[in-house]
Structure formats: structure tokens, C-alpha cells
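Q: What would this chain look like folded?
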Amino acid sequence: MQPSISETLPPVFVINRLNDDHRRADMTERLAKVGLSATFIEAVDGYQLDIDNLPEYDREKRRRYFGKDLKAGEIGCLLSHKKIYEKMVAENIPRALILEDDVFLADKFKDVLEDIQRTSLPWDLIRFVGHGKVFDIGFRRLAALRHDYSITRVPTSPSGAYAYLLTLGAANRLLRFMQKNWVPVDIIHSRAWQTGLETLLIHPSPITPDLDGPSTIGDERFDRAKQITGLTKLLHPFYRFWYKLSNGVGKRLVYLLTWFRDSKYPLS
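A: My prediction, written as C-alpha cells:
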């Protein structure tokens, strides 16, 4: 007897700091309301790391392109997500739903998850970050889901790593890209032209971040003050220009090159 779709749903992993038991309780309750349970993964506390001697952090490249360091909270967040990818590889987990501990789930989210399991659409990474102005430019609908949700491709690279589905193959590939890090984890997710991952979004997003509560990453990441001097400061504008240019070209190139493949799907 074949297992039902509900029985084959991917495991849910929630990143949570050890002392944030109130967030853990909130997420347990929110997931239970939609018929899901989770394994909580202890977050890496970036503020406890020796960032100056961290082998996973490429400070020189980060400063060259951004003029400032990644913050401790950003590094901790990245390494927390990486910890789950390593778990998927070590335990041969085919797919997983990965959440941060400050999200809200739509009442019908489990239906959406079941529909994604049923679709024959190929994907490596499905991001639940379709809020805000992401879709103002236009998007390509590839598969209809229940309750007016759909799997889409967008010509932009939205930020946010608070909720996504990931395959084992994608976890392996991301780990290769995360040996030396210079951008936050959500930017890595956005760079599909570099990772080669089939990256799609759900529209509208059935998972949204809690924008009212305090961020565990820290607001200091929004500080625009530069931390560079000498030759690095002199060359920074050129590196920054190249970063923006390559980002713009890369995301639009992926959108254009996938047009013919996507046109095979009836909703495209």
C-alpha cells in the first residue's frame, strides 16, 4: 500500500536559539494549528564565534564588495542554515522544510505543502518569500496549487531565508558554495545563476515573517558605515559596480533562459 501524500511530507526543521524558549513554544503552537510538527535545530550564536579567525568567512572579499563586514548575527544565521544542510546530507534526507522561528503560517499551508509534493514540476529550492514588491515587475506561473496559490518564477532575487523547501541535491550544492562566505544566506539563495539551482517561489506566500518582533540577527546589519581604507577603499566602487551589474544581468538571464522550458507548463 502506497503512503498518502500527508504521510510523505518532508520533515520540518526550525532554527531556534537555545534560550529562545518562548519562540520555540510559539512555533510549536503555530505548526500544530496547521497540522505539522517540527524538529528544532539549535542556532549558531554568531556573537559567540571568533569571527576574526573563522575559516568559513571571507572578510577580504566581503569588504571589497560591500565596504563592511558581515555582522555576527548574519554569520550565525548563515551557519545555522548550513547546519541543517549538513544534517540533510549526513542523514540522506531527500527534502526538508526549513523555517526560522519568527514566521506565521497560513491556515491552509499544509494543503499547499501537499500540492507541492504532488507536482511533477522540477525544483531544487522553493522559497516562501513572495511578499512585498517582488511581483510588481511580473512573474511566471508554472503550477496551480489549492487556495489560489501557485508555484512561480520571478525575474528578481528577493531577500529572506525565513522559510523554504530544499532538496538533498540542493543542500549538497549549497554546502559547496558555503565553504567561504561573504554574503548572507538569503543572498546565496537568490544567486540561482551562480548556484545553478532550480529556484522557484510560491505566490502569494503562505508563510510571512514576524516584522514586529525583534530580530535575532540584529539591526546593526543595516549600518551603512564603511570599514575600509587604503587600496580596498579606492577599488571598492568598481567592485560594487560589478556586483550590482552581475546581479542584475544574472537574475534576468536565468529568467530569459528558462522561458522555453517554462512554456511547456500550461500556466506559463
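The first strand starts at residue 12 and ends at 16.
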